[in-house]
């Protein structure tokens, strides 16, 4: 009997069986991948739930911690020749963050009471004060730092925002090149910070330079200096021509005053306070000696 046909049929069966095995392996791989995906999704969901629980726990912990007063440790028993606080870029009209910082300052001040507080400028965001009776003075200062332990003298310099940064005297109705040109009680100017003591006796601010009475002239001398006239890019801005603005300041005279005050000082430590740094890793120095740091490099010892 001729068996070729049977052999061919057997070969076909073997051939087709091979395809069946391949298809079966494919299906098995597909099922395995599906099981892996399900497992991965399950783990991701569990991980997400765990992360949410961790975040909630941290948030609750931080909320509780932020509500806790500062705990005096060894500070109360330590002896310091002079204690003072330094704060800057703070005038935010009494926002939650500003009030929280004020409360923390007050807590620390109960342990280490400062003799005075230094402000490095940008005292009243975003454009400074626009009259001698501007409510922003109380909203950003008097009503925020009103704790008993912060009732000490504050000595401030001006920042660029105190000069009416971004307020164009040619476009804003509450701005002009002179106070006389402004509407009554509506004129952005740095000069209103010089009259702040009328509303709060703690407040001291001048442009140019002035000395802080540290109470220990042999140990420490602090000289406050308006650094805004030394930043050339400000002079290109329209707001620098606001009433009492940067264009009306004499940078050469400020330098001369500073040198005279430093030469007259007999203190062991001499500190110069201004709004702009001579060295910084912050964005205004572009992480190098460019920007504000380059403009203020003349002040380096």
What does this protein structure show overall?
This protein is of the alpha/beta class and 301 residues long. The chain is built from five helices and seven strands; from the N terminus they run H-E-H-E-H-E-E-E-E-H-E-H. It has helices at residues 4-67, 96-111, 135-142, 251-264, 291-295; strands at 84-87, 116-119, 153-156, 203-205, 209-212, 220-225, 269-273. The strands form two sheets. A four-stranded parallel sheet has the order 1-2-3-4, with no helix packed on it. A three-stranded mixed sheet has the order 5-6-7, with helices on one face. The longest helix is centred in the first third of the chain and has 64 residues, at 4-67. The radius of gyration is 34 Å and the shape is extended.
How would you briefly describe this protein structure?
36% of the residues lie in helices and 10% in strands. It has 301 residues and is α/β, with parallel strands linked by helices.
């Amino acid at each position: 009997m001729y068996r070729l046909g049977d052999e061919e049929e057997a070969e076909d069966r073997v051939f087709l069986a091979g395809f069946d095995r391949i298809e079966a392996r494919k299906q098995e791989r597909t099922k395995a991948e599906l099981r892996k995906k399900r497992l991965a999704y399950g783990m991701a969901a569990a991980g997400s739930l765990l992360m949410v629980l961790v975040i909630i726990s941290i948030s609750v912990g931080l909320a509780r911690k932020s509500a806790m007063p500062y705990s005096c440790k060894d500070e109360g028993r330590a002896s310091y020749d002079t204690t003072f606080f330094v704060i800057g870029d703070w005038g935010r009209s009494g926002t939650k963050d500003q009030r929280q910082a004020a409360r923390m300052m007050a807590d620390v001040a109960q342990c280490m009471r400062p003799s005075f507080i230094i402000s490095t400028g940008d005292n009243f965001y975003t454009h400074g004060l626009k009259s001698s009776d501007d409510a922003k003075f109380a909203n950003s200062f008097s009503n925020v730092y009103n704790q008993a332990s912060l009732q000490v003298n504050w000595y401030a310099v001006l920042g660029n925002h105190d000069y009416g940064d971004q307020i164009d005297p040619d476009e804003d109705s509450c701005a002009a090149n002179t106070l006389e040109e402004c509407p009554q009680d509506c004129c952005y100017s740095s000069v209103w910070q010089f009259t702040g003591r009328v509303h709060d006796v703690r407040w001291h601010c001048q442009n140019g330079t002035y000395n802080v009475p540290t109470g220990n002239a042999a140990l420490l001398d602090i000289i406050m200096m308006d650094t805004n006239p030394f930043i050339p890019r400000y002079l290109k801005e329209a707001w620098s021509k606001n009433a009492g603005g940067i264009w009306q300041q004499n940078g050469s005279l400020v330098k001369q005053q500073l040198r005279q005050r430093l030469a007259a000082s007999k203190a062991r430590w001499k500190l110069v306070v201004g709004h702009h740094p001579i060295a910084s890793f912050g964005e205004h120095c572009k992480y190098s000696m460019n920007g504000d740091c380059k403009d203020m490099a003349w002040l380096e010892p």
